[in-house]
């Protein structure tokens, strides 16, 4: 069963405003190097990119990397460090987690890998801690409380939940991620969950990141508003997506 | 009903002191690019700017952008990233929220869009979290507590409340904004509310931002005290508003 | 009654160490521009400067500005932004508040403006929050508790208290300031107050700033130890106050 | 007994992104100087290096130094300060601790020095504080609670625990370190421990660092993805480990 | 009695890594200017320097200055600001306090000045806050609790305690400092104190700084590992203490 488990790494990057002072050509090269490192990892593993431009202030870009062991995730980040972009970027938030069968699930065969087809428009991610009282409850009591939570969540059919576990690997206990096409539906779900019994056992569930699904290239282009990555006949490198005046 | 809802994005900017070392012409160009991005968004959506110079230390300028979907808000921030100003600015605070009908409102037809005419001199904004105990109260109990709160607030006729919801979209639960011409009246209201029952259910309501209503151009000019944006025959670009000696 | 109220703005500045790398002449000019902005405001309003060099690590200089409306305080900070000093300074702490009659005072005629003559050697300032339980007490109970507090404080005759209110304008509820010539007397007062009933209702009262009363010019000269501001026949600009070796 | 005790110093470094803008040769020299300081210390004392690239966002490299007295640990850090790398690095986290016999151990002869042979693939480290209630329990009660904890941990045979004490030397009470080849096993252990009685007495145990065992040279090379340290015939200095495109 | 009291100022400095990029001669001059300011103050007042290189990550150097009034402490820091070192240093932590007779002491004649002869190898320093409940206890109850604390501490004969008071002068209530030659003895003392009744009344006692007693010159030389301060025939300025390779 252990062989089914995967490491999941969320890396949130904040770009130094000084990067935007570099020339258009330099920025295009910086982004190409970053994208190449992502592409190489994605050949054998799972990688998705997200833009946070316009949804958060402390992060601009998020990369989610998934692999069976830690080594390729380490190597991905070594390669990213070689890219020009990382000379002007900081890791604003970082979450390391692992997939694991849920004790509350009634789907024993649910695969512990990301489903490639689940390409919603948004991924909402947050680290979570439960209160210690939660863990002192009897297992059947916890099951009862989680059942109410799960039943309510199932009524929101546009939301798909992915829970990963971080106990002992990183600060948080869980990293929870939700695929959604309509954030308003997720907002309504979270607001309704506040009244459930399980909600009283939450110690912390912030920061909450609304991430815009994107190709690596588009997420990079959102950093400076220029087509620096997708070199194509019609896109001259460094051309502005849309000039602000 | 869902089609009435709007995304509301508050972006608070802090200018790097190094920006003020740039030449007067460079700063004027930086500001014009920023203003142009705001203008373009405002053609189809709602955008207002506010100055925090003199009221806060951690933010200089706030942009409030409202749209039916997240895409134009994302694109606005991509365009802002292209402006020279964002090469020397940091997003100090960022709040993403949505409008939604209030369960406590007795005005079922209250529009969920900003009223264009509500141009008070100040907008006071803060993120809010309620204690989890609040959400475990029975709905009629919550209604009773909120009624006392609303009745008291109504006696302060110069204050207009706008509540947006952030559950699951961002760290806070609510973003509350108040239009006011006289901050002293708002101070008195908040002080009186401390004694109400509802106040005991507040988990956090800081930071509190007193924002000065402004055109985008004036809010930008307050950053360096120069007329860099409103190019007009009588305003030579970069001319000081008032020289400090 | 409302016309008696004043806005009080505390702006604490931290100088970037890089400022000290500028030439002596440049620093002198930077300080003169800052002092000129303060002087202009002080023509029609109240402004005092304080040095924190040697008492705090996170702030070097504090400006307290008082005016009937927010506009001149906003304009003062726009002018400060134009000065060379603000190209190398950060607002480390900022508190916005208003004067208001105290419900506990037995001096109904106490003016709500700073007394120009009260020029103690030190001003001790801190933001304060009370616990929510405090606000749920009956008014006569609060009066009783505050009476014990005030009676104890009156025995320390060298200390004068100035309380301003920030509810809804800024993060804190109060900004409390004490004029004192002997900080040791204030230390003894605060230590004795710990045993009073009112002390149990304090949620937070830090950071605490011991500010050294100063002219604007002297507070600026303490930043680099040079006479850069007071241009006079006997002071050549940039001359060191005392060379460190 | 006192002569068996050792100081243990954990130094977590975060590299300034600006370091990656230096030339390949400069970076290679910077790393060689750092490695030389480590080597010199390791001649007479214990030193191990770990990489955090890909597991954390706030630290890139950790050095664990162990010695009988504080002087050589001080001197190691003076030497590190001389290296080029420390001109572009910050100490992101620092923990000072000492080994000491455990009152709960039934292995009285357990050596208080690191076992040179215990070279697991990962070292998981965190600072820990217990609640004050813990220390008010009777010794036999604490022994009973710890026994349950220890018995559960023993079932995870791939995990080896190293506890050091920081009372009065540094902010935390303990620094706990776990040798593991399979982080998934550690995750399962920590999750199971949540249900034990001892877990309720934990005040704080974050941040949690998953550290990748490494030679000093390899941990340094992971910072920029280049072979800058291990000068060998087949490794030309500055040669990229693997180009990102 | 008041004339016996002294101000005690702890200034913890963190050196910007960029300082280490300056030339050896420049660094030597920077350090000489800093040392000269310390020497001048020490002519009439008490000043001691400590190194934190290797024991902390957030501070490199601490200066403890003691004087009867605040003025010379202010002037010392003005002079330090003139030194080249402060162009590349930040005040990471700052504590202002005063000596005062202890209500629990049975040594009424204990001088309130530092004993010049007490030159232990280490000074361990931390700010402290007690819970408000403590101050609501009856004086005789507090005396009883403190007696248990003091009796336990007296059994550790190698430790000497110095408590200073910060009520109303700075954020903390106390700054506690311990002279010790063997930090292991202090660790054992603090661990044993956890079980006393007084320990339950501690609100906070971090950060804890283990400071290495040093001359000003040696503490400065530890910043870059070069003899830049003590110009002597045998020490050529800028000569490395020990080259790292």
| Tally of separate helices of chain A | 6
| Overall morphology of chain A | elongated
Largest interface: A-B, 43 and 46 residues
SSE sequence of chain A, one letter per element: EHEEHEEHHEEHEEHEE
Radius of gyration of chain A: 19 Å
| Oligomeric state, counting identical vs distinct chains | homopentamer
Secondary structure: number of strands of chain A: 11
- Percent of residues in beta strands of chain A: 25-35%
Main sheet characteristics of chain A: 9 strands, antiparallel
- The low-confidence parts of chain A are 230-240
What proportion of the residues of chain A is helical, as a percent range? 25-40%
- The helix-and-strand class of chain A reads alpha+beta
CA distance, first residue to last residue of chain A: 57 Å
General description of the model:
With 245 residues, chain A is α+β, with helices and mostly antiparallel strands. Chain A is 29% helix and 28% strand. Chain A has 6 helices and 11 strands. In chain A, strands 1, 2, 3, 4, 5, 6, 7, 8 and 9 form a 9-stranded antiparallel sheet that branches. The first copy, chain A, has a two-stranded antiparallel ribbon with strand order 10-11. The N and C termini of chain A lie far apart (57 Å).
